[in-house]
Design a protein that fits this description.
Elements lengths: L5 E6 L10 H15 L11 E8 L5 E3 L1 H11 L3 E22 L4 E4 L8 E17 L7 E14 L10 E10 L1 H10 L5
Parallel strand pairs: 2-8
Antiparallel strand pairs: 1-4, 2-3, 4-5, 4-6, 6-7, 7-8
Length: 190
């Protein structure tokens, strides 16, 4: 049996058209919050499911929304803000993951899973991130190309999420060593 795959692509700034897609609108909110590093103004479950998992470029796996949130706080601690250099590019494969509530498990292409099934979108997000150092008088920055993959679906628990959506799974590929070694050189954490 074959199924139809709906693919949405978006490049450049967010627009009124991109905001009509719930997943892209969610990502606009998420990237604005991350860019401004306004993490303390949010709870982890505004963006991450309680049973979410995230795989860093070095292979470290972070299990649970709170654990991921704490890691993000630590990771971006040396920076005042983050920006995007040039355009970001996103591809959304709508409904291509089935998520198992309470376990943060995503099974590709509708494979049967136990528990409450939540259909999610697989998102590939590519951009060059500009890291602005705290306390830099000259506005010093370091840039790194990043590729991210998210599985975004309905909030795991009622009353959580942003517009009813959360990240269930994340992966990132980037040269974190370049950014963190520069942060260490400047006396920041890394």
């Amino acid at each position: 049996m074959s199924s139809t795959v709906i693919i949405r692509s978006h490049s450049g700034p967010w627009t009124s058209l991109s905001r009509t897609n719930p997943t892209l609108a969610f990502l606009e909110s998420y990237t604005a919050m991350i860019g401004a590093l306004s993490l303390s103004g949010h709870k982890y479950h505004d963006f991450y499911a309680p049973s979410a998992s995230f795989i860093d470029a070095d292979g470290t796996v972070y299990e649970g929304g709170q654990v991921i949130w704490d890691w993000i706080h630590e990771l971006f601690g040396p920076f005042e803000k983050l920006g995007v250099e040039g355009e970001h590019r996103l591809t959304v494969l709508e409904g291509r993951a089935v998520l198992e509530a309470g376990k943060g498990v995503a099974k590709e292409d509708g494979e049967d899973v136990e528990g409450r099934e939540i259909r999610g979108d697989v998102v590939f997000f590519e951009h060059t991130m500009v890291f602005h150092f705290k306390g830099s008088e000259e506005g010093e920055t370091v840039s790194a190309r990043r590729m991210m993959e998210f599985v975004i679906g309905s909030a795991e628990e009622e009353g959580q999420g942003t517009s009813g959506l959360q990240i269930w799974r994340g992966k990132v590929w980037w040269d974190k060593g370049v950014v963190m070694s520069e942060a260490m050189r400047r006396g920041g954490r890394g």
